[in-house]
Fold Antibiotic biosynthesis monooxygenase.
Amino acid sequence: MSEAVGQFVVIAEFNVREGELDAFLALAHNDANESLANEHGCHQFDVLVPEDGSNKVILHEVYTDRDAFEQHMQMPHYAPFKEGTAPLLADEPMVRFFNPAARPQN
């Protein structure tokens, strides 16, 4: 097997309260934009919504490693996202962490 690419992936799923989706998305897009602009360890930050129009939001984030993600949570733009979105949520978010699987060499 070959070495896995050194990346750390975060997938966070949020159920947003009815009528609060636009406010949540504004905060999420600000966090994404600031992360991509100001964090050298943040390589990708997607804000995703389902095709069915439900009030679910998925954040797909790719960092160099877990340390880069930990640094992300200490950045000045993260606190307004965390604090601002808390009252907009229907329940606790589900956050999962992943590492790329090694691809076999041919």
User: Anything to note?
Assistant: Residues 8-98 form a domain with the Alpha-Beta Plaits fold (CATH 3.30.70.100). Helices lie at 21-38, 66-72, 78-85. The first strand starts at residue 8 and ends at 15. The longest helix spans residues 21-38.
